[in-house]
Amino acid sequence: MNTVFIAGHARLPSGMAAKSIYETLTITAEIDKKYGVIVAANCTLATDHGRQFVHQLLRGHSLQDGIDKPSETMKAHYLGKAGNALVSALHDLYRQYEHYKANHN
């Protein structure tokens, strides 16, 4: 298999629909092992539309280029209450990716 599955987590703010189901927001990503490219992404937002939007924002980005660009894209384009949690979960996912790379090279 040429991909790895990684998850990043962050606390959800109060007053969100997803908060009644989950305490934390999770972003998951299937990542190409060789190039670090996000092949597919998902998250625990309450709506399919929100989850699809996050997938579209992240798909195709290489984590070998760092996390700043997708983080800024998320801040600029996702304007819901979960915005900060999404960015935090994205940074946690990136930390998990860096840990994976350090232990599998």
UniProtKB/TrEMBL annotation:
Superkingdom classification of source: Bacteria
Pfam families, A to Z: DUF3870
Annotated InterPro entries: DUF3870 (IPR024617)
Domain DUF3870: 5-97
Descriptive protein name: DUF3870 domain-containing protein
Lineage: Bacteria, Bacillati, Bacillota, Bacilli, Bacillales
